[in-house]
Amino acid sequence: MGSIEPNPVDASDIDSRTPRGRRLLLRWLGWGAVGVLAREIGVGVIRGYLWSPHAGPFGGVIDARPAADFRVGDVVVQSAGQCYVTCVPEGFLALWWYCTRPERRCVVVWQPTAAASSGPAEADDHTFATLGRFSCPCCGADFNRYGARVFGPAPRPLDRFPVRVEQGVVRVETGRQRVLLRQQASRADATPG
Length: 193
Fold this sequence. Notes:
Blueprint: H1 21-50, E1 61-66, E2 75-78, E3 83-88, E4 91-96, E5 109-115, E6 131-135, E7 142-143, E8 149-151, E9 160-161, E10 163-166, E11 169-173
């Protein structure tokens, strides 16, 4: 029997521009990774800017409750508006429930049984309440019913939303565009009711 000799391949028959084996696999993996990254960026933009998970009442006007149902010193949680509505002798305040520490975004907690802390003279709730304060669980800052910082590292008072009383109902204008930043809490911030 004769031996079988391999058929020599002419190098000119192979197209050098055609990727083979591992190079093809790496090219597909690279383009696949670029596609996944582009998809994730696109989804992030759509979810973050075009579609808001707070598309419900937050960003609009919410009705807290009838003004006649409030007593001086009351604090009512408005989850839909991400705020606390407080009743002080001068009227009503809607305090955004986020602490003002810039590097954190913690929700302050209303503690109705904690001793009230006296705040600055222009916004002191100690004159009409002995119990209740807002506390930040992250930084330990305390705020009174006017949103004034009475203790802790928070740089300023709680931000607030515009409030109006229409037809006997306390209404709060909520949303990131409606937040009223303030450097100092004052009794004049309250909307008469």
